[in-house]
């Protein structure tokens, strides 16, 4: 078995265990394989193992891979990096999901640039749930206004929320941040029934995030190895 295959099986098993420990069905939580900086052939091998959703942060790197892997019919690309307003067109053209929307202007541009012959672009709002000043994302209080704007944009579909919590070993602090996200997400769902995605949890906090209601975890290094 290759290293990639071993890693992939270990991560998928870890996710299954986390779901079982939380009384959840394994299929309730999507695994997003974060393939940033990794070559297209590695993504393809991971696809052959059964993985379908891949996360990318860097546009140039991602565009080349997406072009090289067009023959993989069921592949689904998620943009999870910071978005500069002059870079919205390639995101709107090449991705099925954008998880890092946190400004009105970016939302409007993605809507205007989404090609008519593609399905609407699935959008998550990035929330700065820890309130760290240097971190991207809107505050919990700003969710309703941005959600309302996106709801009015026909080429975007609001699917939920995403966060990168504080980088801390304090499990109680992390659990509280995840719980805030879950609460905000449930409120959003009441208003917008198509909202079904809560993207939270990475390698270090996967179990905690799943226990707190995550519907998508984002894992890079533990699948593809360290980035050079
Ligand atoms: C890189 C990245 C990940 C994955 O991080 P790893 O440490 O490689 O598992 C998850 N989410 C976001 C937003 C990232 O940028």
Automatic annotation (TrEMBL):
SUPFAM superfamilies: PLP-binding barrel
A Pfam family annotated for this UniProt entry: Ala_racemase_N
CDD domains associated with the record: PLPDE_III_Yggs_like (cd06824)
Lineage top rank: taxon: Bacteria
Role summary: Pyridoxal 5'-phosphate (PLP)-binding protein, which is involved in PLP homeostasis.
Family, as annotated: Belongs to the pyridoxal phosphate-binding protein YggS/PROSC family.
Protein name: Pyridoxal phosphate homeostasis protein
């Amino acid at each position: 078995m290759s290293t990639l295959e071993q890693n992939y099986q270990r991560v998928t098993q870890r996710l299954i265990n986390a779901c079982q420990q939380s009384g959840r069905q394994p299929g309730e939580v999507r695994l997003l394989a974060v393939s940033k900086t990794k070559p297209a052939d590695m993504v393809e091998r991971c696809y052959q193992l059964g993985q379908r959703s891949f996360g990318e942060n860097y546009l140039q790197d991602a565009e080349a891979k997406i072009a090289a892997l067009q023959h993989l019919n069921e592949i689904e690309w998620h943009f999870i990096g910071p978005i500069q307003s002059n870079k919205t067109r390639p995101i709107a053209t090449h991705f099925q999901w954008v998880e890092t929307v946190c400004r009105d202007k970016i939302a409007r541009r993605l809507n205007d640039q989404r090609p008519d012959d593609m399905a609407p672009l699935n959008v998550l709002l990035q929330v700065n749930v820890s309130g760290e000043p240097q971190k991207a994302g809107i505050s919990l209080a700003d969710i309703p206004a941005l959600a309302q704007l996106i709801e009015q944009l026909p080429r975007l579909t609001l699917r939920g929320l995403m966060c990168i919590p504080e980088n801390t070993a304090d499990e109680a602090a992390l659990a509280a941040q995840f719980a805030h996200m879950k609460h905000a997400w449930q409120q959003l769902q009441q208003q917008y029934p198509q909202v079904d995605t809560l993207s939270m949890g990475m390698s270090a906090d996967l179990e905690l995030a799943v226990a707190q209601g995550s519907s998508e975890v984002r894992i890079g290094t533990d699948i593809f190895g360290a980035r050079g």
